């Protein structure tokens, strides 16, 4: 059996098969999914990076909710997904259930994160993919010391989702001078912690997707980007018969470039340059995990499937890279109705 990287301890190891237990990592003794140890399967490690209050945990819950919608409505034909451990099972069947009833999840505690591990089956054009998510507390990104102590899982991700709320960074009013400052501060700390202290070569090993979260609160968003956000619910992925996933990915690439140009025009070129000079690749997305601002930990209206906007888009970028690495991409296959 070939070596795989354990999603729990990050060791490169050969899984052991134990009677009554199944496959497990010999280093940390965590159980490993049966199909995960098959090296032919695509897999991606995704790290969530962002300061406290910028929406990392809510985004992950909204993403799981939207994956359920894609499956239940057969928007992606024959698509299904399952959890791979008890921790992730709780997110899908407890936290997401509360989210459906308009309750937001609690913030991630400041400790070593236990990953969320899911197996996606029959993703259009990409097949089966294992995804590992590392959601680390926002306070970890306030200093390089905390990143080296608690952020090593994120540091070894294939793709990092940089979650940045412009309204939070701009002190509630989207002051782009404040936004640019906070975006660069987060990225500067991350690069120093991961590249300098942990010796991870980001330009060879890690891609970045920038998630502009709480995008429904951005009052200076140009009209075309505002319209893009409003169109990007789960229904956007329903096939229109004009090229399937290949066409959708071209659209996402174009939207990414438009967001990048807008950030530059608003004085955030320093962040854009710093990201593109230090990572393997960079994409940009607009996200609204709930569709509207909550009151405390409760949504003001009952959550409907069309409310989350753009939450699948970053994941599709990460899955495309994973499929490309494993030579499994089949772009152009048909979408379900």
Provide keyphrases for this structure.
2 domains, 337 residues, alpha/beta, two-stranded antiparallel sheet, 7-stranded mixed β-sheet, Rossmann fold, 11 helices, disordered C terminus
CATH class placement of the largest domain: Alpha Beta
Q: Could you name the ranges where pLDDT drops below 50 across 5 or more consecutive residues?
A: 331-337
Helix content: 25-40%
Structural class: alpha/beta
Structure description:
- By secondary structure, the chain is an alpha/beta fold.
- It folds into two domains: 39 residues, no CATH class; 286 residues, Rossmann fold.
- 38% of the residues lie in helices and 17% in strands.
- It has a seven-stranded mixed beta sheet.
- A hairpin with a 6-residue loop joins strand 1 and strand 2.
- The longest helix has 22 residues.
- The radius of gyration is 19 Å and the shape is globular.
- The C terminus is likely disordered.
Q: What are the SSEs and their pairings?
A:
Blueprint: E1 4-5, E2 12-13, E3 16-18, E4 22-24, E5 42-49, H1 56-72, E6 80-83, H2 86-100, E7 116-123, E8 127-135, H3 144-150, H4 152-155, E9 159-165, H5 166-169, H6 176-197, H7 202-205, E10 207-213, H8 223-231, H9 244-265, H10 269-278, E11 282-286, H11 312-325
Parallel strand pairs: 5-8, 5-9, 9-10, 10-11
Antiparallel strand pairs: 1-2, 3-4, 6-7, 7-8
